[in-house]
Structure formats: structure tokens, C-alpha cells
Write a structure and sequence with these properties.
By secondary structure, the protein is mainly beta. Helices cover 0% and strands 56% of the residues. The strands form two sheets. Strands 2, 4, 5, 6, 9, 10 and 11 form a seven-stranded mixed sheet that branches.
Length: 115
């Protein structure tokens, strides 16, 4: 089993920045890919970004250029830097991890962007 704990959410004004962190513990040897999904009120959960153990990154098209995912292998932590935030970025952001598919999920951290 893998445990994921997110931190860094909060309230920010439009145009501001936030950095989310996700610390993994447990059977971390089984993790190849880590990433972030988000779910806004009344909407389905959507991919934000993902990063493999080799460092390959993938982003949702609508988030390219504003968001950056990175990984600290020594700390078993993945980060999500969000810049130029918009009100439509308001959502609960979930950290996830797995070997091929996302098998493990954190409880989520709420990001609220005010206009």
C-alpha cells in the first residue's frame, strides 16, 4: 500500500500562485508515475499533470504553460506549481500514484481562486 498526503492548498487571488506538495509513504518502490487530478464542484475529475519515474511529464492541454509538475525522488514527494491562477482553477486537487494506472489517491486539497 501507498499513502499520499497533500498539502499547500488554500485561498488565492486570481493571478496568484500556489505550490501543492504530495508526500508518498509505504510501498513506494511500486510507484512509477505520480500526478495530480482535480475536481471542481459539479464537474468530473480531470487530469492536471503526471510525471513518471524517468521524469517524463504530461499535462492537460488547457493547463500547459501555467502549471509545472516536479518530483523529488529523495523525499518521495511530487510538487505542483500553479501560476497565474484563474477562478476556473478552483477545485479539489488530488495527488495520485501507481505503476501504470493511478492506483493510489490522496484525500485532496482545496484550492480556491477568487476573482
Amino acid at each position: 500500500q501507498v499513502q499520499l498526503v497533500e498539502s499547500g492548498g488554500g485561498l488565492v487571488q486570481a493571478g496568484g500562485s500556489l505550490r501543492l506538495s504530495c508526500a508518498a509513504s509505504g510501498s513506494i518502490f511500486s510507484i512509477n508515475v505520480m500526478g495530480w487530478y482535480r475536481q471542481a464542484p459539479g464537474k468530473t475529475r480531470e487530469l492536471v499533470a503526471r510525471i513518471t519515474k524517468a521524469g517524463t511529464t504530461n499535462y492537460a492541454n488547457s493547463m500547459k504553460g501555467r502549471f509545472t509538475i516536479s518530483r523529488d525522488y529523495g523525499k518521495n514527494t511530487v510538487y505542483h506549481q500553479m501560476n497565474n491562477l484563474k477562478p476556473e482553477d478552483t477545485a479539489t486537487y488530488y495527488c495520485c500514484a501507481g505503476f501504470v494506472t493511478m492506483d493510489y489517491w490522496g484525500k485532496g486539497t482545496l484550492v480556491t481562486v477568487s476573482s
